[in-house]
Write the structure tokens for this entry.
Amino acid sequence: MRTWLRVHRAAQVCVALALTAGLVAAAGDVLVPVPRPTLDDLAGVPVALVAPLVASSVLVRGALAGGGSLEAVAVRPVLAYRTGLVALTCALSLVMAVVETVPYGAAAARNLVGFTGLAALAALWRRDAATAAPAAYLVAAMLLGRPGAGSWWDWPVEPSPHPATWVVPAACLGLGLAAPALPRLMPRRHRR
Amino acid sequence: MPIRRWARSSAAVLALPVLTAYLFFVMSRSVDVLEDNWLSATVLVSSAAVLAAGPVCGAAGAWEGARLARGGVDGAAAVRSRAAILAWSLLPILVAALVAMLGGLALAGVAMAGVPGLPDPLVLAVALLVIVAWTLAGFAAGRHLHPLVGVPLLLVGTWLWLAYPAALETFWVRHLTGDNLGFCCETDAVYDQRALYAQAVVAVCLAGAAYLFWSRRRGARLAWAGIAGLPLLAMAVAFPLVRDMGPEAQVPRTSGLACGRSDGVEVCVWREREKQLGTTALIAVPAARRLATGTGQPAPRRVTEGPADGADSWRFAAPPGARPDDVLFGLATGLLPAEPPVCGPGWSGADAYGPLSAWLALTAGAGQDAVERRTGPESLGAARRVLGRPPAAQVRWFRHNLDALRRCDVSPSEVTLP
Amino acid sequence: MPISFQGCAFGHRRGSRVFTRLDLDVPAGRTALIGPNGCGKSTLLGLAASALRPGAGRVSYEGLDPFRRGNLARYRALVGWMPQGIRPLPGLTAREQVGYAGWLKGMSRADAWRRSLEALEAVELGPLADTRCSELSGGQLRRVGLAQTLVHDAEVVLLDEPTAGLDPEQREKFRGIVARIGERGHLIVATHDTADLARTYDSVVLLGRDRVRYAGPVAGLGALAGLGALAGIPGFAGEV
């Protein structure tokens, strides 16, 4: 297991998570101006909502790392290990958000969950570009989103950790983690 | 490989629609409030292009850099130089950025229809330089980082560097990024060239360091020295240029006036407003004479939108859409000090500003409604009370309160209604 | 029959087909899998290794279908697979990488560690056991791949182009390794190295586009050669 953790860059994931937590605690409430066509003035997005993208990328990179062909024929449940690594990291971020009561801590944890979920879904299509999906989604939400308006889709820029803003991120993560296991549970395709 | 096929496999194909959409979003909120000069349009386009293309091209560079690394370019004994190999991958991304920027210019061109002048090539060139620098930084990162990390890191990192300094109170940082806050300048100001030079220096050094990082070979100490030294050089050169600059990179404009004579007075407007010179003169010259009579000063020989000394030449502003009352109000308040004196707490001179403005505007011939809108009913009431006095008493009141605005030891007099 | 393919269909992408209906019983012992580029040799080995899942039909080893519920781990423990590309895992030494392969195959950490050195010695890489894989040459890395396949004592060993990139001396050594594997289990080798087929292998499977053109003793291939059926396969001049 130790080698599996090395191969899947668990140390780097921990460092990225710790750095993100530190950044959120130290400067999470700093607003970065974002141009939005729907508003008169430059609106700001707290750093805490953006920083988890990098931590999520490191996590996804770690989860998808490793000897592809070696793990493709492994006897051990490597898919479960990978799912566990991602789920555990997301859970850890939630715990940190609860323990470390800093502004936007919970929203940052939610974004980590959401970004990771989006990347996991994108990885089904193309692994090496998986993290481009949450990055693009974040940019779109920054441009078009209206924080506080209660819409379901612009959760990356929603500073409030209201339970409704968790629905999409949690669904993305759940689907993204479950989807690779689905082919084993579903009947075979391309039957002739 | 045919160029079309080469371009088709580039990340630029995906980057172009993203950055074009982003650029138009960034621009759409500002294009309606552009000033009537091409510099403001140029800065808006360059700023939007940098903010849109910097992060996207950086991310595309990280992708392409990783592609080159995976393709084994490092190990291949290529006939072409590393710079040539890099250039062929860089080119489609830069073309995408250029296309987006030209689209932005076209949009600005529509908004600026009828305004004489051309985009400022230097501002656009520096913007392109900044985009090139971040794209190269992406290539350098892509050589070592997997695209899963490199692409979002460059996208977010570059965006933070470009956007975040605008929120800092340390103003000099924002003048190094190339973002330019999307705005510069009003027609009576020009871009502070020091900021442009600083941005160019930072961009060149970043590009140089990124290229060295991408192309270095194992154990190349000279390359490492360059990678470490160039950022230091950038700071050493660029920081002194922008250290003392305020929140905006603009300085007063001193050239570009179009002048004519009216009733013995020379009238000058910015050349972008040359068409309105005759109409403006018909408003400004009689108003200047009324003001001279009312304040007991000699009539000016020149009224101008440009620099004025307040004695021989008086200043006014006639921006597009300004009504005669606006021009009169500008001319009248141009006689007041632009900034208050540096006095300690308890200075009450500022109380004189409203009544003096109202009295000057009414003397110049502005309508009471317009004056009340700008100065408030109290100031208008005080001014009307003074206007009921003999001319000599009005001049005394004006001079005393003008002193109150300029000096710390003079208190305003009769600036409130009893 | 060690590995059996029954009505297998497979495509890497929706709409593409490598096999539409493949029926093949791979002979026991040492088998060479030959055929022109792109005929599906690697895909066949991937299916046999259970790295790929057939769209239709079934693959089995002595009746054990890996994709039947509960069979996968048992099947994979019996089969070892060396794909064409062996990737060095960043930061791992040759011994760590081989040990990791053993651990993934269900061995305990201690067993995997112990066996990793034996596997490396079997491919004559013992002296380089503590060298990082990223520092090994291409040929050495292929031998690490072979050691990964041998580490867990698989009953069926699947090797995809194992001699590609090896010098003549290494190829000769590889033949010795093949002989040793053949003594204790089954071996299927996808190869373009058709010299000495008869000396190295017991049987041969000749794949054409989407079909098996020949499966049987190596000697039987000679008749096909006479019919010109081997034209286009590198290395064949009609002589086996």
User: Anything to note?
Assistant: The domain at 3-221 of chain C is CATH 3.40.50.300 (Rossmann fold). Chain C has a mean pLDDT of 83. The first strand of chain C starts at residue 3 and ends at 10. The interface with chain A takes residues 9, 11, 14, 20-21, 49-51, 53-56, 67, 73, 76-77, 79, 81, 83, 85, 87, 89, 91-92, 96-97, 99-101, 103-106, 109, 148 of chain C (CB under 8 Å).
